[in-house]
Fold each of these.
Amino acid sequence: MAAEDLIPDSEGAGRFLPWVVAVMVFFAALAGAAALALQQATGTWRNDMANTITVEIPPLKNSKVPQGNVNTLDQARLNAVMKALVATAGINKAEPLVAAEIAKLLEPWLGDNSMDGLGNLIGDLPLPQLIDVHLSPGQPADLSLLAKRLAKIGPDIHIDDHQIWLGKLIRLSQSLQWMMLACLVMICFATCAVVIFGTRAAFTAHAEVVQLLHVMGAQDGYIARLFQWRALTMGLKGGLIGLTVTAIALFILSRLAADLEGPLFGNFTLSPFALLSLALLPLVAAALTAFTARRTVLRELSQLP
């Protein structure tokens, strides 16, 4: 007896199984892609911002100079801050950002600095002087001592420690990853529940044939394999459909994400390992469907006289 005789495609709850698996794979792939993208982004943020701080020197009142040049008083404060940074242990390198680099940081919010009129606008703004400071990984810097030294130079000079902001961002990212993992677990349970329901319905619909095979001496493993093979093919079919829809959705999302500018979003392109993991989802769904169907049939057979 062929498997399609026990679980036909055109009757019973089993005919909806491929579509249910397709929906489950679609949501699982989206959740997995989001979790993997967040994991990659977290690693990028950690690498880019680890062991770095920024010292901000606000411009003095009435010290604005066209095109972002630094006047004598601002230059004196900058030199004093640089000396304080050099004198602080644990600081590996300190580089002041020029006006063009500061304008580059403002481009995601103000647009391209090369546009007519916008370059003059940025040049006329009283922009603060920023110093990019790299800390030594093996020797922690005493930021409290540095803050006291900078306060003597100017009370409005402050340190922007990226570690505090980065820590909050990483915790948020990790929380979202755990939520995505919880979604994957719930999707697996929901898939198993649907397979159990469909398998029981098919088993009941063909109870007479199953009982006849059972009386004729067919082993439980043989009967279970009939249901298992049919569930495997239907699960694989649904998984491929879901993966195809997911690929289309991710392509559209990647095109939309490419228009986003800013250091926070970065590059959310999935790595080859992440793409391979998503490509294996139909096989995982098919294996889960087949295993669940087999366990369900064996349980039903164990209750037969």
Amino acid sequence: MLAQFYAPVIGGEERMVQDLSRELVSHGHEVAVATLWQQGFPSYELDHGVRVYRIHGTLPRLSWLYAETERRHAPPFPDPELTWALRGIMTRERPQIVHAHNWLVHSYLPLKRFYRAPLVMTLHDHSLICATKRMMYRGVPCTGPGMAKCLSCSRTHYGAVKGSVTTVGNWVMSAFERGTVDRFLPISQATATACGLAGSHLPYEVVPDFIPNDLGEPGPVTDPRIAQLPADEFILFAGDMSADKGADVMLRAYAGLDNAPPLVLIAKSELPKPPELLRNVIILNNWPHDAVMEAWRRCTFALVPSVLAEPFGLVAIEAMSAGRAVIASRTGGLADIVVDGETGILVTPNDSLDLRLAIKRLLGDPILRKRMGQAGKLRVNRYRASTVLPQVEKVYQALLEAQGGRH
């Protein structure tokens, strides 16, 4: 596995890579992960049988390049120090398959021709065609890449120099990636389409993110943070409090409600909001995943009001696994996960009135909420490890057979 971050770094993609690695080990595979070294983490460790190598890169050493020094991303072009470290791991491990998950793959691409291992690339976002990975342009979903347009957007996002280098580097390496990767695995059909795979000659197969088989089931409540949740009904949002995730839209929608239960925000990041938008709003920062899952089990229903085209929508899956109805934007992978009128309600992205009406509808109909929650819990079975992992193994097997190898 090649992944720029790995647990205990927190994030949906990081959790996905860890879950995939552990599940593969439980199925009898040997798994090694190469990831970026982060301050305070060991250079090597065993994680439930997964061999984790944390490697140094030249660019990640330059802390002044990064807004978040605890998350120093892999660059969108080969980092010589990372490439050298990956060469050492390849020589030691001799893997049959290399499975990459983000820009760390760019430091591996120069090595690909020296090894027989097929290269699989999971697309968790839009980084194949977008330097910011978000496919947003001036606050609205982007209609497609273009060099001048991408340079302007990236400079706004990263700064003039860093944005220009990132855009050009990603543009060049993405072309290299398209000619080198043996199988792309976009996590939704929406991601495949946005990244230009649909209708192309590139080999790809949609393999969704997944959750552990037991996720969503009640367990012992040990985290003291749970006491911060309202004792009675509350509406729940979990994620970044950013414009891309629809935070402003959600707060405007909620502010127009009368006598609504509290809105709880379990936030990874927080942006200043006008006080009038925060009445009856409870903000809880940086909760661990187990505590978030307990919050899903206790909430009245979930909100996923993204403005950007979500590549997948793992947060909606987690809420559904806890038996909760979901109000989500009709965009990206969310439109595949949430079945409108059956497991939740789909609303127009960036439309606070449409979102407010959906909230009113669920608040006023507890029978509908319960029916949607039950239907969502059944639907989420298609996104559990027992269903998705065999799809991943099938891809591995097909690639090994194509090159004459044996599993």
Amino acid sequence: MPTIATFHGVIIRLYYHDHQPPHFHALYGEAEALIGINLVVVLQGRLPAARLKDVLAWAQRHQPDLRDRWQRCQNHQPVPRIAYP
């Protein structure tokens, strides 16, 4: 499970061979949300409002990078980190 980014205490991870639709996991303390990549929305879970706002804005800016990293995970390839912001 590669960590592809960290910011404001949020950890962004992908899992190898994860289920569809393409998504990433955003963790903040005990909170976790699955965020869609093709349509940047919360698919499951929750985060505090301020952190969710940061995560959604970051995901919008990095959609092409997230699609690339998702595909790399599906192919079990090395997954480079994505910069913040």
Amino acid sequence: MNTRHGVERCIRHAFELAETRPARHVTLVHKTNVLTFAGDLWERTFHEVAAEHPGVETAYNHVDAACIYFVQDPHRYDVVVTDNLFGDILTDLGGAVSGGIGLASSANLNPARTGPSMFEPVHGSAPDIAGTNAANPTAAVLSAALMLDFLGEGSAASRIREACADLPTGSTTEVGAMIASRVRD
């Protein structure tokens, strides 16, 4: 369910995040031409919050167009804000085009910190391969880096991201041990 309070909270966080990044750009992704009530709420709120952040550039993409641009021209994006439905689609797509959803981390943030935030791989769990030592743990480890960033531990988060760069494939145990070794070194 989309509420003004929830939508505004998401959009405000997107603009606050964009202000900390060099590109200073936020793209709203939705389907305003079809989901007219929810889309109107997101679009109105986006424009109202954007007016409070004149140093941040903005854009709007329908979700289907965003899927094309994620593949053809991903550098056009800095911060993307959208609802859960489209966010789920885009994070899976983003993971797939950047090496596989097994490498894609995610964070469901409560920026006000009035309740918990959640950090997990984009794909969630993989019960179909549980116990086979075949799951790539990189996304789970990178989700921990997102958590450390959120907790203000940027240096530790950077060490984890560096440890996850250019990993060879292998079993869960092998990849996990390699990441742990790189973090320790």
